[in-house]
Amino acid sequence: MKKLALLFLLLSSLISFSQLSNKHWIPPLHSRDNTAISDQYIYMSTNETVPFQVTATDGNGVPYAGSPFTISASTPGFFTVGTGQPTKMFLNLSDVNTVVSGKGVILQGPKDFYVSFRMRHASHAETIISKGRPGIGTSFRLGCTINESQDNRKNFVASVMATENSTNVTLSNYNTGVIFSSGSGNITADTQTFTLNAGECIVFSGNSNVTANLDGIIGGLITSDKPVAVNTGNALGGITNGRADLTLDQIVSASQIGTDYIFIEGNGSASMENPLIVAHEDNTAIFVNGSITPVTTINAGQYYLVPNSYYQGTNNSNIYVRSSKPVFAYQLLGGGSDTATSGLNFIPPLSCFFQNSVNIPNVNQIGTNTYNSDLMMLTYSNATISINGVAVPTSQAQAVLGNTDWVSYRVANQSGNLNITSTGPLAVGVFGFQGTAVGFAGYYSGFGSTPQDTNITVCSNSTSDLFTVINGNPGTGGTWTVPAGGSPLNGNIFDPSINLPGEYIYTFTKSCNTSLTTISVKVNVTIQQIKNPGVSTNTSSCVTTPAYNLFSLLGSTAEVGGTWSPALSSGTGVFNPAVDAGGIYTYSFPATGACPLVSSTVNVNNSVVPIINTITNFSKCDDAVDGSATNGTATFNLLLKNSEALGTQTGVNCNVSHFSKLASF
Questions:
Q1: Domain limits at 587?
Q2: Which residues are registered as beta bridge partners of 507?
Q3: DSSP assignment string, 70-92
Q4: Is the pLDDT of residue 3 over 50?
Q5: Do 322 and 433 reside in the same domain of the chain?
Q6: Domain count, the chain
Q7: Residues 655, 39: Cα–Cα separation, whole Å
Q8: Domain ends where: 478, 493, 528?
Q9: Are 550 and 480 found together in one domain?
């Protein structure tokens, strides 16, 4: 890879970008030094006031201890993933560069929530903040700290988790001198391809004692034929020998990147604080701070380190970067001034569709450890920011050179749970440090905010709110245009029994700072017909009854192709009374696509053949019970013959009835 930069030695930031989503995937990592990682936690928060449950599993679907977890805006949650290496999030070298299962973390809930993976050690810390559904995709460009080569603890690391079965993943377009590490030895291939099933992962890593490994993975291309989640960075990373930290983040795919970015400087030295711009297409021109003359033009996979000297401002310092084509934007920064507090931050492109509020749990904590924590915030120049209900003075805003729509803020010494709001679009980062050897950060909001055309499949037996399925943050109060000949929606609700499949266009207006913009978004709706398992019923038979097909009892609407449970001896839906036990038999179709599992039942009462026992005669001499022993009449207690009549019969419901017939002598 050709390196295009004005500065060579730079450090990465301790910031990452969080995205509200109802599902998150976090692939595992690998530290070159097993002792460089200790405690590992998952933190969850949401803007929702009504509590809901979040399930947390590994890639195989095995729940983490305590799952499901209940969270709300006032009650965030967290749990422990593990300690040290190996865990489900930090893999031994033997699991590197090979497909693994049962690793990583997958979280899912009925509503949107933030997820951060926070990790610490006595000398290191970092936060990876999941991008959720907006983050998964099929094309990614990697970034990392540009390490020095002497420290034998340093590496680069990138990891992938598949969201669907039979996903082909390829890593390519990196420097051909890059040498990858694995449990079976070094790998020097110029391209690598693997097939993963849903939840399976692969981790790539290379040690920094190889010159090409210092920056050769930057711009490396991960592609897949189905959506995946990707992490990238270093474990460890740093520009000074003997000074290192965890520098990691989760990134988004090429479909979510853009051309306009603002970076807010952290606490690092000038050699640590630099934006890293990675081109995804050839002939990408880079412009800084509103200049109409590009500082450089780079091709796909090449990168440009923006010199620290471009940071400007008095209240805080920022850089505005614009590109002629979409780019991947990383921020290299420091939680503190020491190079051992370095970190890596993946930055979202500017959007007037950023959300207006962010909830950050335990902003200054990782486990039981506390840190010095500051906020960096980005919003419109005419907006007001509040933290836990207290307005931040607008006098603290810093104008952006070359972009008058936006301003940046920095607020120091934050702790506890924070609710940050703005009257305009809002992006919030938190970064912190402890002493001279630990730094961390997380960047909340951003990716997937701009509304995009969306495809949706609706099951024929359910309805769908088309507004809520639009990718991004569309404005409310818009109007719908339905397909020609179709019935209007009931509000935003699509009903397959009334509405036609096809293209539904949602049009709304959005105030992007001072300008009012009309935006139209397409929702392409497909209807999936749900399988019909028929109608539940009851039936009775005897063990001597000939075999019969339960399927025929479900009615004329039942569709073939379902499965019977428990399985019948025939292997089909044929019930053999002489072999199969009575009970409830369920005919079902599994959940497929947008449609849930459906089923019907047949309750079979399968009776055995009763045995008619011979009953011996019941004789009795005339007695005096009736007052005369010579009148030819005696009193009989017929109940005394019940046990003889029933004998040893089981499995049948028998009643004994008594009839009398006078005997003549």
A1: 537-607
A2: 479, 520
A3: EE-SS--EEEEEEESSSSSSB--
A4: no
A5: yes
A6: 4
A7: 70
A8: 528
A9: no
Q: Which of 2-11, 281-290, 457-466, 482-491 has the lowest mean pLDDT?
A: 2-11
Answer whether residue 493 shows pLDDT above 50. Answer: yes
**Are 129 and 346 within 8 A, CB to CB?**
no
| C-beta separation of 84 from 40 below 8 A | no
How far is Cα of residue 271 from the mean position of the Cα atoms in its chain?
Answer: 36
Q: Report the distance separating Cα 594 and Cα 3, nearest Å.
A: 46
pLDDT at 648: 61
Task: Give yes or no: residues 521 and 543 share one domain.
Answer: no
E-assigned strand segments in 241-306: 243-251, 258-264, 274-279, 284-288, 296-298, 303-305
In a domain, 177, yes or no: no
pLDDT tens digits, 579-590: 999 999 999 999
Give the pLDDT of residue 204. Answer: 97
Q: Is residue 140 part of a domain?
A: no
Q: Which amino acid is at 299?
A: N
pLDDT tens-place string over residues 248-305: 999 999 988 999 999 999 888 888 889 999 999 999 999 999 999 999 999 999 999 9
- Say whether both 351 and 244 belong to one domain: yes
How far does Cα 600 stand from its chain's mean position?
A: 32
**Residue 155, in any domain of the structure:** no
The b/e string for 613-637 (b: 16+ C-beta within 10 A; e otherwise) is eeeeeeeeeeeeeeeeeeeeeeeee
CA dist 168 and 171 (Å) reads: 10
Q: Which amino acid is at 196?
A: L
Query: Does one domain contain both 598 and 650?
Result: no
For residue 10, pLDDT beyond 90: no
Q: How many residues does the chain have?
A: 665
Which residues contact residue 219 at a Cβ distance below 8 angstroms, ignoring those fewer than 6 apart?
1, 141, 142, 143, 173, 174, 278, 279, 300, 301, 302, 303
Tens-digit pLDDT profile for residues 390-444? 999 999 999 999 999 999 999 988 888 888 999 988 998 887 777 665 666 677 7
Last residue of a domain, one of 584, 607, 630: 607
